[in-house]
């Protein structure tokens, strides 16, 4: 017997199934990591054919709420974290805002010569020594972000002697070296995780992720830090909010309001 009776009318059957499944997920009928019942069982639940069920599941998969794997079934995913581009708070602040327990694990810390990309980003001659840090950002015991950070070694002598797991890097740069980050320029692109990054993020190699490359600048527009951050595509999404400026109206010098 159907748990939820679909109604004939203007609302398509697959959308009714979608709405009820969304409500069930919101109310915790299935938790992250749970496997949903097979499609035929869901069809009996709604008293419909397989087609509306499959279309509803496809829509929830596109929203990132479900993952469908051939031969294994359909699984509930964790809600994606909303990460605002240009967020001025620390990773720990962001995770606590989402009610999660943050942690940082230092994977690598060393001095190495800069390649062309890093040198250009930091306005250094190629081959100049840089500090390289690789830090894994963890929330509730699950790896979410992998940061690969490059800093001019001459400017930050002794940085590697500090605790880079429990201390904020930006706080250390400001308090110990007088290097205050005031702005950043960032670029975002989708990538497929290579074996190294996938292993640290506990993901299969080739899994989609977001790569954020950025340069942080001081008050005199001097580059302080170049960073590559790999963000799990199944656990976070990026958002941006900005002002819309329209060109002045001819002859007035005034802009239209949006």
Describe this structure in words.
This protein has 258 residues and is an alpha+beta fold. It has 2 domains: 13-76, Winged helix-like DNA-binding domain superfamily/Winged helix DNA-binding domain (Arc Repressor Mutant, subunit A, Orthogonal Bundle), CATH 1.10.10; 81-239, Chorismate lyase-like (Chorismate lyase), CATH 3.40.1410.10. 24% of the residues lie in helices and 31% in strands. It has 7 helices and 10 strands. The protein has a 6-stranded antiparallel beta sheet. Strand 5 (129-139) and strand 6 form a beta hairpin. Helix 1 packs across helix 3 (50-62) and helix 2 crosses helix 3 (50-62). The longest helix is centred in the N-terminal third of the chain and has 14 residues, at 13-26. The chain is elongated and about 70 Å long. The protein starts with 12 loop residues before the first helix and ends in a 19-residue tail after the last strand. The mean pLDDT is 86. This is GntR family transcriptional regulator. Residues 11-79 form the HTH gntR-type domain. InterPro entries: Bact_HTH_transcr_reg, Chorismate_lyase_/UTRA_dom_sf, Tscrpt_reg_HTH_GntR, UTRA, WH-like_DNA-bd_sf, WH_DNA-bd_sf. Keywords: DNA-binding, Transcription, Transcription regulation.
